[in-house]
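Quick log. Single chain, no ligands specified.
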Amino acid sequence: MELKRLIAEDSKSALQSVRTTYGEDALIVSTNKIGSKTEVICAVDLMPDNEPFIEDNEANPTVNPAQSSADDAAPFSASLNKVMDNKTPPSDTGLADLVANIQQELLELRASVVTHVAANPHELHPEPESGTGASLCERAIRQQYGSLRTVPLNEQRSWEGAHVFFGRPGTGKTTCIENLLAAHSDPNEEARPAFALIALGELTHDHAHEHWLKLAQLSQRYGALCAQAKSFEHLVSLIEKLKNGHTILIDSQIECADTLQPLREQNSVQFHHCVGADFAPETAANNPAVGQSTIITRADLACDLNPMFAKLAQAKAQITAVSSSVAAISDRD
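-> predicted structure:
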């Protein structure tokens, strides 16, 4: 296999020239724009003019049929590595530089693929062959999660306005808020948003006082306003007072947002269902609102996300953010 270089007016004519000159088996390695022309590098199998083609393995004792079969079945990456390792040094200096650049780009591409697979192991699982709405939705869920988990929480979506975080106890709603505050704690950040934290829950709840104290500690640590909503009417009043100058983060103790639906309609409040990645998959479908914003929390603690993806797909949810634990963020820093 040898590398060949062709120049043509455009990509279409360059690819056609490759097919015409070297046949359908020619492998396109790269295409580049050189001025107004298009350069194509392709890999082709060429038999030397002075050596006849020998099809009978018995006439050529150096060919091992088992080895030949193994070579034919080798993956493309292995074949490409063999070509790169056994290439004949080109006599032209410019071509030598070109080959070296191609090899470097292939090595960088390989490293990028390895990094991506390590960060998104769920993508290795085969997708369902059926074209049903459920399978398409699950594929979208996987893509949403994969694209968000490596992005800082404050950059995953717009956090302007008022936001209600709800879900089962222990899913990490308060931790998600803390991660968002921590992401904006850089004193050198331009136009840092002013945050206001609101604790929402039944005052008679056993953990209402503990919930309020934890949110108050966060407000002191990150210099944010903090209030406790004593009723639905009180919550509406607080939002009206704070919405013009603050990003409002409402940490609720409720598991279902149906009782707060008027907030969505009257005050343009955004609702986020927090789902713990390490929780039972059934919890992902506890609030089956179509198109509902879902935040995956405790993402660094989960081992297998596939059952959760399936449940979220059934609920037709949308993953809008991914949050890990505060400890994981500290490790990265």
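The chain has eleven helices and ten strands.
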